[in-house]
């Protein structure tokens, strides 16, 4: 039946309403970001006060706010992505939990003093006065923010630490020459490109294989779950207790090795004892098929995700505002870089709120890449990724290995994805590793060429890790340091010229 003129007019009105709402949202997001950035500038101006270099501090507050937005949009997604991809958390729920925990970690446990990035990367003999040092920090900060912003737009998880390191290297070289940089430190960072994902992926795959063997592949899943899930929850509680004490709270508390070990044992027993009755009740109430086994891991996964966010906010807020703290210190003292600098509360507020706002406004794109576009996640796999991230950081810290939290999380997702692919394709011949004639003739699964083609097509359908995403992410990792260095060098020259013209 043909639609009446009134029905057509109503449809047009509904379409216009949807278009207006979409347009309103597209303007609201950058509008809220601009309001936050202006607030960061005002807070910097009111908190620092007057002085010959106060205008640079105000501009640096703006850049710090911009960097904090990008840290929230990119880094935090690594913690949230697996939980969202497994459907253990909705996107809105993940954003709310992460925003609160990241901001709380940054403001409560961000610490009073941080070591400056410049002290680690720039040789002590390098002579930089206060103004030039501030320009180096500002240009490196801006370059890191822009590069991370581009990565966010493309949905690529990159390391903001590496972006800032690249920025400092580029600006230091253009300002004071090649000898200004500690190249051995940069070499350790390059090594982390391999160490971080390899450790994260290996530990996550090992955890997943263990859970599959002990619970998922057992005939009596209910009995296996009652026996082993509380032990896994206890392990998670133990690892995260030690992780928070050694990493998340390290700027405000130093309990020592014995205290950390005692806390690990204590929280293992608490986690085991608390989870036992809950797991026992759930295993009696529902049929223990694969889906219900997965659901047993939802509460510990949500808990782990929240703790990862708190620790990230406490530990990585220095990525967002550490250079701002160094700039404030240099502007106040009228001198170049210091070994350690004070981290004022107003600087922590810019970092903590910026991370939370950036996550809420711009985080969903990277969250979807990490949680959905690399490989399919469920609750058990996401639990393995979260637990692997904490274990990897603990192991790396114990051996003094440089690691990246971004690379660890993404490497863990690669690990569980490739393990699934290996197990799924077990027994199917792979023509890529043997000659075509041998593949067609010798395999008992390939009695005819047609059967060989069918097996090949079956293997192709079972590629459970998207190669395009893997290659894109690895390429972004490799390009981050040189790209940020180049951008920073350009910005440093431009800022130096601008300041010279202004003061002339």
TrEMBL record:
One of its GO terms (cellular component) is membrane. This is Phosphate transporter. The chain crosses the membrane at residues 27-49, 55-77, 89-113, 133-151, 163-185, 191-216, 228-246, 252-275, 296-314, 343-362, 382-399, 405-422, 470-503. Pfam families: PHO4 (PF01384). It comes from the Bacteria. It is a multi-pass membrane protein. Signal peptide: none annotated.
């Amino acid at each position: 039946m043909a639609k009446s003129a009134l029905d057509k007019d109503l449809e047009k009105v509904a379409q216009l309403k949807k278009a207006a709402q979409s347009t309103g949202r597209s303007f609201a997001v950058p509008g809220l970001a601009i309001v936050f950035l202006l607030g960061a500038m005002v807070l910097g101006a009111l908190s620092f006060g007057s002085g010959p270099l106060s205008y640079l501090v105000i501009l640096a507050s703006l850049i710090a706010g911009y960097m904090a937005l990008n840290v929230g949009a990119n880094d935090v997604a690594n913690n949230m992505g697996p939980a969202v991809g497994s459907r253990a958390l909705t996107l809105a729920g993940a954003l709310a939990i992460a925003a609160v925990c990241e901001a709380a970690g940054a403001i409560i446990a961000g610490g009073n003093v941080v070591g400056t990035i410049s002290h680690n990367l720039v040789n002590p003999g390098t002579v930089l006065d206060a103004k030039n040092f501030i320009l180096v920090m500002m240009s490196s900060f801006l370059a890191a923010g822009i590069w991370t912003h581009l990565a966010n737009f493309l949905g690529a998880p990159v390391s903001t630490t590496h972006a800032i390191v690249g920025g400092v290297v580029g600006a230091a070289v253009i300002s004071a020459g090649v000898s200004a940089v500690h190249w051995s430190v940069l070499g350790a960072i390059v090594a982390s490109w391999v160490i971080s994902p390899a450790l994260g992926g290996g530990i996550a795959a090992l955890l997943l294989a263990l859970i599959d063997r002990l619970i998922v592949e057992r005939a009596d899943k209910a009995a296996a779950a009652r026996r082993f899930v509380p032990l896994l929850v206890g392990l998670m509680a133990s690892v995260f207790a030690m992780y928070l004490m050694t990493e998340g709270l390290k700027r405000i508390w130093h309990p020592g090795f014995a205290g950390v070990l005692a806390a690990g044992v204590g929280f293992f027993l608490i986690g085991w004892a608390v989870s036992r009755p809950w797991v026992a009740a759930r295993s009696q109430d529902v049929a223990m098929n694969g889906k219900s086994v997965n659901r047993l891991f939802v509460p510990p996964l949500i808990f782990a995700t929240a703790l990862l966010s708190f620790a990230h906010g406490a530990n990585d807020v220095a990525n967002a505002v550490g250079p701002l703290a160094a700039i404030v210190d240099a502007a106040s003292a009228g001198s170049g870089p210091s070994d350690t600098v004070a981290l004022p509360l107003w600087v922590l507020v810019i970092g903590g709120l910026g991370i939370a706002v950036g996550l809420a406004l711009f985080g969903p794109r990277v969250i979807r890449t990490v949680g959905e576009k690399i490989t399919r996640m469920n609750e058990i796999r996401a639990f393995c990724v979260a637990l692997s991230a904490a274990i990897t950081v603990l192991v790396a810290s114990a051996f003094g290995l440089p690691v990246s939290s971004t690379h660890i999380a993404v490497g863990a997702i690669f690990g569980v994805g490739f393990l699934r692919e290996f197990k799924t394709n077990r027994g199917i011949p792979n023509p890529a590793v043997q000659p075509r004639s041998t593949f067609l003739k010798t395999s008992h699964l390939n009695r005819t060429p047609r059967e060989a083609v069918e097996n090949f097509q079956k293997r192709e359908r079972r590629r459970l890790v998207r190669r395009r995403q893997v290659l894109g992410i690895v390429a972004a990792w490799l390009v981050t340091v040189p790209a940020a260095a180049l951008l920073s060098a350009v910005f440093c020259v431009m800022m130096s010229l601008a300041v010279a013209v202004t003061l002339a």
